[in-house]
Amino acid sequence: MLTYTIRRLVLAIPTLLFISLVIFLLLELAPGDPMAEVPLTVPPEVKEKMRLALGLGEPTHIRFFKWMWQFFVIEPMVFIDWLFGTDLAGGEQRVLSWQFRSPVMDVVVQRMPQTLWVVAMSYVVGVLIALPIGIYSAYRQYSLFDQAGTFITMVGYSVPPFFSGVLVIVIFSVQLGWLPSIYDTTLVVVDWATFKQQLMQMVMPVMVLALQTTAQISRFMRASMLDNLNQDYVRTARAKGLSEMTVVMVHVLRNSMIPVITVIALGVPQIFGGAIITEQIFKVNGLGQLLITAIQANDLPMVHTVTFMLAVLIVLFNIVADVLYGVLDPRIRYD
After folding, report:
1. What are 135-144's contacts with CB under 8 Å, separation 24+?
2. What whole-number distance in Å separates Cα of residue 24 and Cα of residue 204?
3. Which residues fall within 8 angstroms of residue 97, CB to CB, at 6 or more apart?
4. CA distances (Å), 15 to each of 20, 68, 308, 313, in order?
5. How far apart (Å, rounded) are the C-alpha atoms in residues 136 and 156?
6. Average pLDDT of 158-175?
7. pLDDT bucket at 33, cuts 50 / 70 / 90
8. φ, ψ for residue 188, nearest 5 deg
9. How far, in whole angstroms, is CA 163 from its chain's centroid?
10. ∠ CA 306-307-310 to the nearest 5 degrees?
11. pTM for the complete prediction?
């Protein structure tokens, strides 16, 4: 398993390099001009100097290799300098955002906590709700609970976040006035009152993101449980006199979790993608909103970096899912 993991990590390097090249070329071919936001009163020669200052006067391949050097070499050196107090970077040129006129990774680090507050919490809540629903729905197949759960999860999986987000704002913020409609990113948790305020403003975005997570994982959990409940080993366990709780929660659940764990691992990048829309709706000043504003401002270094980071998540968690599948199922051997 260790050899397989190392091999997959090594093979992920050329994959990620190719993905970064594709993203860069797509951004180059996309319509839009970074100088479009500059006022019309600025003379053309000044605009040209600004274009050259942004590095747009260089050939495409030179700019791509510069981005690779800055992202894969300079940025790790900056992180090591921050971690250990060294001076490896030595004032080297970093990936700069055209919109913020500052290093891209500095802006990303500032926005990351807001996204993690919402995304991580919503995924944990969604998984914790989905697993019991899927288990009980399978055990009580065709019961009222199963039918109601099937209906609710299908609706939750079908309704897009931009609709459910607006819907919960209208209900819980406008009509009932229970929850704030806008996420206050400047809030600092220092006492119980601010912690309660933080929880209140997290409820709706977490609810919207957790809804789709719950719908997807509960359906997988139910299908996997139903498949295992009809296996011969379950009848054998019952014939031996084991209690129903032991049969279901130990033997059946353990085997049913093998495919579900891989689905949970593969769902982590998806929830970050869904957060892009949700953060726009609730004005969460996170990575999703950062990506949208960068696209609108034609901030190509920011768009390239954030999109590539999402691609890294997808590739990484695909490897995690494969490794977990092999760890949980002893019949799988990656030789």
Report:
1. 135/221, 135/222, 135/225, 135/248, 135/253, 135/256, 137/218, 137/222, 138/221, 138/222, 138/223, 138/224, 138/225, 138/226, 138/229, 139/225, 139/229, 139/248, 141/226
2. 35
3. 103, 104, 107, 294, 299, 301, 302
4. 9, 14, 12, 13
5. 18
6. 82
7. low
8. -115, 125
9. 20
10. 90
11. 0.79
> Alpha-carbon distance 235 to 122, whole Å?
37
| Whole-number Å distance between alpha carbons of 13 and 103 | 24
Asked if 152 and 242 count as a contact pair (C-beta separation under 8 A), the reply is no
Residue partners of 137: CB distance under 8 A and separation at least 6? 143, 145, 146, 149, 150, 218, 222
Give me the DSSP letters along 277-314. Answer: HHHHHHT--SHHHHHHHHHHTT-HHHHHHHHHHHHHHH
**φ/ψ (deg, to 5) at 95:** -70, 115
The mean predicted confidence, pLDDT, of the chain is 81
**What is d(CA 123, CA 274) in angstroms, rounded to the nearest whole number?**
11
Tokens found for residue 245: 């709780």
* Single-letter amino acid, residue 70: Q
Q: Could you give all domains of the chain from N- to C-terminal order, each with its CATH number?
A: 2-84 (no CATH), 113-328 (1.10.3720.10)
- Residue 107: name the closest of 330, 281, 303, 320 by CA: 303
Count of C-beta atoms within a 10 Å radius of residue 111 = 21
Residue with tokens 């000043």, as numbered in its chain: 285
Is the separation of the CB atoms in 97 and 301 below 8 Å? yes
- At 96 the three-state DSSP class reads strand
Three-state DSSP class for residue 183: coil
Per-residue pLDDT reduced to its tens digit, 309-330: 888 888 888 888 778 777 776 6
Q: Give how far the C-alpha of residue 234 lies from the chain's centroid of Cα atoms, to the nearest Å.
A: 37
User: Dihedrals φ, ψ of 103, to 5°?
Assistant: -55, 135
**Burial of residue 121 (number of CB atoms within 10 Å: 0-12, 13-18, 19+):** middle
H or E, element range at 156: helix 144-158
